[in-house]
Amino acid sequence: MAQLDQASVDRLAAGRDRALDAARALAMVAVAVGHWLVAEPVAGPDGLMVRDVLAVLPGAAHLTWLFQVIPLFMVAGFAAGVPSWRRHRERGGTAGGWVARRVWRLLWPTLIVVAFWTLLTQVGDHLLGLDSSLLAATRGIGLVLWFLAIYVVLTALLPTLDRLAERFGTVTVMLGFVMAALTVDVVAAATGYVSSIEPSWVWVNYLLWWAPVGLAGRWWDATRTAAGRWTGTVVAGVALVALMVVTAVGWYPVAMVGVTGQARSNTLPPTLALALLAAVQIGVLFATAERLRTWLAAPGRYVPVAVVGSRAMTIYLWHLLAPVVVTLSLVLPGMWPAPAVGSGTWWAARLAWVVVNALVTLPVVLALGRFEQPPARWAVTDSGPRVVVAVVLCVVGWAAVAITGLHVPAWPASVPWLQITALGGAALLLLRTSPR
Question: CA 245, CA 263: separation in Å to the nearest integer?
Fold first, then answer.
């Protein structure tokens, strides 16, 4: 990596926006570190338990403002996706074909993850007789797929959202979504709902809040202008003040992730508070994008960013394997320290936990990164109806993995039949009937 010269790096970065690559890489690292920090496995007399750090240390809730980075993924996805879609459309391509390729790139690496953990839990259950609490941990591992269930819907809707923005204006379309989402927020709060399950209609805010966040990516070219950077600074500042107010007065929780025992969550479904955090992050990104491009012009700075970006899905899907390995090898045998929560020693142990998990994750990513891209010999469909059904099946499959995990005792042989059927069906619908 250190031996790459400027010409090699320029070829690596050809056609890429280095600031967008940096945003994706930073967000991916933040996701992994945040997950490693927030869940603390503890071995006790009653067996293994996973402690929700935010539940026992409420003062750490503000840290989630740094580690909740879904907005960066959304805006980066649209910033790169909109020009990609337009080029595809100009070449005479269909929306179905464009969406199919995007969805297939998301689905393929998850098929490998689902197969791996399904086989592992089956061996652990039927051959090794592992404790059910250990097998149930796959729910935590599979929980990361909930984001893909949302992201794939926004990806599928991108051509439609772009057309709406072209016809009515980006601001108008965004305001329409925001007003609808605010209405859901207010009505839900007035009726005293306590979760995304009751009432279920609040789920619509997954679309109503994240759509305008993604649409902000249509303004990405403005990051190259002084006016755009100034606007980003103002938006970030105003949104930060508003976020501090709505959380300080108790309208919304401070934590930007779900917390055990907390009645309301800013992510189940997204709320105004999370939308304000999104505005802060997007504003900061827009304000600093040009400086990032300049700073990343040096080969030694950009290459690590490019490497992380090229293995983003592998990191995302496999970074929770590390806590399993470290827990089995160090926590359960009692070799990992268990200081008082919140003490200086405890914080040092949490940082050490992150370092150890990163060291375990590195070889996993190096070994499995080659499987991130789908096999080139298979072509995807351009049939709109098939793609629509495939997207629905992806949402069902990924949501089921997030909710029940990949070891389901209530089902025959504890096999996650729904997940396998839905994701396998989506793959069959996306692919053409014969190789290229």
Answer: 20
Q: What DSSP string describes 43-78?
A: EETTEEEEEEHHHH-GGGGGGHHHH--HHHHHHHHH
Closest CA to 327 of 51, 34, 57, 120: 51
Yes or no: say if 20 and 79 are a contact pair by the CB < 8 Å rule.
Answer: yes
Long-range (24+ apart) CB contacts under 8 A made by 132-136 are 132/409, 133/47, 133/48, 134/48, 135/407, 135/414, 136/405, 136/407
Query: Three-class SS of residue 42?
Result: strand
* pTM for the structure as a whole: 0.90
192 confidence band (pLDDT: 50, 70, 90): low
Burial class (CB in 10 A: 0-12, 13-18, 19+), 28: buried
| Parallel, antiparallel or unpaired: strands 39-44 and 47-52 | antiparallel
Question: What gap in Å lies between CA 136 and CA 121, rounded to an integer?
Answer: 9
Query: What residue spans define the domains of the chain?
Result: 6-430
Hunting for tokens 């679309």 — which residue is that?
Answer: 207
- 175 — phi, psi (to 5°)? -65, -35
Which of the residue ranges 145-159, 192-206, 234-248 would you say has the lowest mean pLDDT? Answer: 192-206
What is the C-alpha separation between 13 and 307, in angstroms, rounded?
A: 11
Residues 107/149, Cβ–Cβ less than 8 Å: no
Buried-exposed string 377-411: b where 16+ CB fall within 10 A, e elsewhere: eebbbbbeebbeebbbbbbbbbbbbbebbbbbeee
AA letter at 308: V
Structure tokens, 369: 């990164």
Return d(Cα 198, Cα 207) in angstroms, integer.
18
- Residue 19 identity: A
For 304, other C-beta atoms within 10 Å of its C-beta total: 12
For 287-301, write each residue's pLDDT tens digit.
999 999 999 988 788
pLDDT surpassing 50 at residue 436? no
